[in-house]
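Please fill in the sequence for the structure shown.

STRUCTURE ENCODING:
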């Protein structure tokens, strides 16, 4: 009887073998995702390097910058499609931490390219909607009806804030290039986006803190415009 009691209390090795299999499966998924995410990150660095030329390129030269960026974003989109295929086979919020930052960076590149006149906009100053960004990436946005890979509203808004930060720098660099009209365009754009953010009731702490900094970007560009006004360099029309 004593032997039977002891034998029924022994933990079965199969329990830990099953746990190890789950650990190995998770590791394999993470490895597959990491390889794809690193590829997206690498391609996006090239895209952002191309887009950075806008800071030293006159308006007349922007179409070439935009065309080069669009071509690289097309390559990036193919990799995002690979990520979508792999990630959609698993619970979204279990692994989304591994690609969220890269999706934000890719979204920023698309937003900046669109602002510069890419993706059929034709002229500078346009804001791509989250749906338009999703269409470029060829992924759904803000999914609520199923558990699959998608671009979230938070990723879009964080990317939009990054766009404003980059545009505030572009306003200053435009003056160096002798383009005194672009700072006016940027100033109005940032003010409009800032007004839009004030409507939002943001629950995400990180997003709320970053959005608080938009007012400083508004002020930075206003200072650029004010300086141009003092020097009589603002366009008359």
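FILLED IN BY: designer on duty
SEQUENCE:
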């Amino acid at each position: 009887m004593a032997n039977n009691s002891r034998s029924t209390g022994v933990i079965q090795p199969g329990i830990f073998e099953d746990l190890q299999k789950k650990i190995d499966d998770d590791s394999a998924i993470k490895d597959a995702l990491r390889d794809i995410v690193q590829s997206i990150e690498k391609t996006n660095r090239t895209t952002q390097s191309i887009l950075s030329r806008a800071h030293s390129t006159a308006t007349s030269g922007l179409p070439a910058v935009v065309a080069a960026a669009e071509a690289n974003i097309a390559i990036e989109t193919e990799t995002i499609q690979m990520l979508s295929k792999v990630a959609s086979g698993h619970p979204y919020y279990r692994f989304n931490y591994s690609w969220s930052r890269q999706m934000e960076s890719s979204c920023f590149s698309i937003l900046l390219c669109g602002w510069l006149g890419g993706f059929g906009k034709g002229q500078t100053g346009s804001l791509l909607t989250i749906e338009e960004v999703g269409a470029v990436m060829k992924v759904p946005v803000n999914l609520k009806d199923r558990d699959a890979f998608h671009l979230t509203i938070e990723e879009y808004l964080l990317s939009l804030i990054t766009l404003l930060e980059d545009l505030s720098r572009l306003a200053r660099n435009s003056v160096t290039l002798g383009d005194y009209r672009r700072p006016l365009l940027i100033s109005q754009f940032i003010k409009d986006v800032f007004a839009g953010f004030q409507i939002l009731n943001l629950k995400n702490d990180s997003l709320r803190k970053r959005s608080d900094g938009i007012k400083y970007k508004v002020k930075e560009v206003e200072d650029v415009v004010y300086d141009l006004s003092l020097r009589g360099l603002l366009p008359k029309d």
